[in-house]
Specification:
It is a single chain. This protein is an alpha+beta fold. The chain has one domain: Immunoglobulin-like (Sandwich). Strand 6 and strand 7 form a beta hairpin. It starts with a helix and ends in a 7-residue tail after the last strand.
């Protein structure tokens, strides 16, 4: 039947995603559960979607780097599609969560907000067939929360 293979692929993708999310929740330790992608960003018909790392156009890393805010909710949208809406725990500050995303080539707008009051909006460009890497970190200094943004062509080297 025409299109039946695409239905099977979608169902397999959904099953793999459910198993991956289950693994994240059941294997999470330390101070909390690892953040998971927002359902809107996992929908198969979304213009911005969470995918496997090999299919990604953008590898987005998110982390809470603030010992003053041991846990913070961070919400991230790209072109109006919510891709992350989770609580991030500072733990030892070396816990970046990766979100491999696929986007159409061109200019995109990312918005990030934290429940501590930090927010930003940036535009970035994803060229056709080229991988990009981005990092969003939450920080607090002198009682003021901030979200920082790093966008680059090369893979990110974390210390």
């Amino acid at each position: 039947m025409p299109g039946s293979s695409s239905v099977i692929v979608r169902r397999l993708f959904a099953l793999v995603l459910i198993l991956a999310l289950w693994a994240l929740v059941s294997c999470g330790g330390g101070q909390g559960v690892d953040p998971s992608p927002h359902p809107e960003g996992t929908a198969p018909d979304s213009s911005v979607r969470l995918v496997g790392a090999a299919e990604a156009d953008l590898l987005l890393y998110v982390s809470n780097q603030s010992f003053n805010d041991e846990e913070v909710r961070i919400t991230i949208t790209i072109d109006g599609v919510t891709v992350v809406d989770s609580v991030f725990h500072v733990e030892d500050q070396h816990n970046w969560m990766s979100f491999p995303l696929t986007l159409h080539p061109g200019i995109h707008e990312i918005t990030a907000e934290s429940d501590s009051g930090a927010t930003f909006r940036k535009s970035f460009k994803v060229p056709r067939g080229k991988m990009r890497y981005a990092v969003i970190d939450h920080w607090t200094e002198d009682g003021s929360a901030d979200l920082t943004w790093l966008f680059q062509r090369q893979p990110v080297g974390f210390a």
